[in-house]
Amino acid sequence: MKPYVKIALFVVLFIALITILAALILYNKKHTDMAKSKPDFVVPAAALQKEFEDNEATASAKYINKIIEVTGTIASVTLVDSNNLNISLKTGSDISSVICTLPAVTHSAMFRTGDEIILRGECSGYTQIFPGKPPLDVLLNNCAAIVNKK
Questions:
Q1: Total number of domains in the chain
Q2: What's the per-residue H, E or C state across 125-147?
Q3: C-alpha distances in angstroms, 9 versus 1, 18, 21?
Q4: Phi, then psi, of 76 in degrees rounded to 5
Q5: Is the dihedral of CA 103, 104, 109, 112 positive or negative?
Q6: Are 50 and 114 members of one domain?
Q7: Of the candidates 9, 129, 142, which has an alpha carbon nearest to the alpha carbon of residue 84?
Q8: Which terminus of the chain faces fewer neighbouring Cβ atoms within 10 Å, N or C?
Q9: CA 92 to CA 88: how far, in whole Å?
């Protein structure tokens, strides 16, 4: 075999091994336990939604990929699929809300419309449901219900 073919084969195998290793590490990475994490921001649901509504770019830079503890009144509880439960918090607007996604192992019976709740999760930003229309909802993923604050 010619030397340049051996080098090329070695480089390809090396890249393949690195890719497989990276994929395994990411696949086995555990989610952050939001119930035990320290929030970067503590804010009412209405204030969070208002910040995104007033200036989406500034709010995105401030909140996206940060852990946020949000307080609010439950507007609705929806079992999205077998893996996720969405809790929508009232914001004072009829068309906008803060949507918090929890693992479905959380019992939906714990949450009732009209209850005050504290949730902690990672902000994903403002949703754009219809292209060209204004965004509506602020999304928090991997949320946990906070029972008692210390």
A1: 2
A2: EECCCCCCCCCCCEEEEEEEECC
A3: 11, 14, 18
A4: -160, 155
A5: positive
A6: yes
A7: 142
A8: C
A9: 12
Q: Which residues of 65-94 are buried (b: 16+ CB within 10 A; e: fewer)?
A: eebbbbbbbbbebeeeeeeebbbbbbbeee
Q: Are residues 86 and 118 in the same domain?
A: yes
Q: Answer whether residue 35 is part of any domain.
A: no
Q: Which residue's structure tokens are 């989610």?
A: 31
Strands 116-126 and 67-79: antiparallel
Two tokens at 40? 């970067």
Q: Which domain holds residue 8?
A: 1-30
What local confidence, expressed as pLDDT, does residue 149 receive?
47
2 and 67 fall within a common domain: no
Specify whether 8 is located in the same domain as 47: no
pLDDT of 54-85, one tens digit each? 888 999 999 999 999 999 999 998 888 777 88
Count CB atoms within 10 A of the CB of residue 113: 12
